Amino acid sequence: MSKLLKADNILLSEGVKQMKMIKKVALTAAMALAASAVFAEVSVDGFFRTEVSNTIVSPDEGDGWSDFSAIRGTSGYYFGLGGERLRVNTDISNEDGTAGVKFRYQADAGTFFVSSNVKYAMAHIKLFDGLFDVEAGKLTDGYTGTNGYNGYDFAENRGARGARLVVLPIEGLAVTAQVAGDDGTYSKDYVSFSASYKTDDFNVQGGYKLDGSAYYGFQLTAVDGLNLVVDGTIATKDVSGETNDDGEDVMAIKADVTAEYSISPVTFGVAAELTFIEDNNYFLINPFVSVDLSDVVADGLSAGVEVCYISADKIGDGDMKVTPEVTYAVGDVTLQGFYSLYLPDGDVGTEHSIGMGIKYAF
């Protein structure tokens, strides 16, 4: 059998698996709906985004940006639309919102037929006048996840399948207990607890899992025009997957900081990712500024620039990327033109890229 035929058969097999999985999810949702009162509220939203770019001058050899470009795309880290992705969210609930089904399908470039595209598919029901919310399925966390650029929780970020009990004792407070894993088996290591508290001025989140992992988050909302978020993760050496220079398992701590301030027509700030690992600490820092040109040129038009630097310990030599961007948003469509200048620190050539992105939200 030729390699091409084998590849076709693999793709077909993945497609069949995907269709079977979607049928199972649809059947589960249908059973949940049939077992409940008549569901009157249906919400579907999402987006499709993609970008095309051309490298004008390539470096002499590869550098560390490839891992980040695969996630963020060739455009800017903060303002950039990002690489190719299709996301569809579906939320079906009864009229008073006390029971329902939530579902997300998300596919990145080249991965349209894999089971992991179902990011969450869960049913929930509120009991005792909303004191408890019982959730089951492939979970998403709508209560205790952090609000930073990456966002952390013990639900879809882990591909968790299981059940969660949410307790809502007073306004703004949520406390959860969860048993969920991603390999079809369960033990005490799959048990986690999390909580969040939200006011008009701030919100705070935290979670601990019995395997030795944790997350935390804080967001300040008291100052008009300011969005300040600090969040991250803590993992013991048993679950971090990181080692020091001697090959020993070590703890890993991650802290993300986003500080954005808007004073019309200017938005500026900085985003940073800090990772602390024995013998391999590294950071990413990304200052940015954008100017709204709606009153000067055209509604929905803005222009900005951002500078992204990754420290040397992450990739051998530190890298910097400078990206000017022009963005035009009209209705549900956002268009963006960008130019990226890569400035590797080391014996690697400078790289220039120019491109355009488009995002359609529905």
Defining key terms:
single chain, mainly beta, two-stranded antiparallel ribbon, 12% helix, globular
Short recap of the structure:
This protein has helices at 3-35, 65-72, 312-315; strands at 41-57, 85-93, 99-108, 118-127, 132-138, 161-167, 173-181, 191-198, 202-209, 213-220, 226-235, 242-243, 249-250, 252-263, 266-277, 282-292, 301-310, 319-330, 333-344, 351-361. It has 362 residues and is mainly β.
Low-confidence stretches: 1-30, 62-68
Share of helix, binned: 10-25%
Count of individual beta strands? 20
Backbone CA Rg: 22 Å
Cα end-to-end separation: 43 Å
Principal-axis shape equals globular
Average of the residue pLDDT scores:
81
Profile the largest sheet. Answer: 18 strands, antiparallel, barrel
Residue fraction in strands: over 45%
Write the H/E string, N to C.
Answer: HEHEEEEEEEEEEEEEEEEHEEE
Question: Treating each run of at least 4 consecutive H or I residues as one helix, how many helices?
Answer: 3
Structural class: mainly beta
Structure write-up:
- The protein has 362 residues and is mainly beta.
- It contains three helices and 20 strands.
- It has helices at 3-35, 65-72, 312-315; strands at 41-57, 85-93, 99-108, 118-127, 132-138, 161-167, 173-181, 191-198, 202-209, 213-220, 226-235, 242-243, 249-250, 252-263, 266-277, 282-292, 301-310, 319-330, 333-344, 351-361.
- The protein starts with a helix and ends with a strand.
- The relative contact order is 0.14.
- Mean pLDDT is 81; it is low at 1-30 and 62-68.
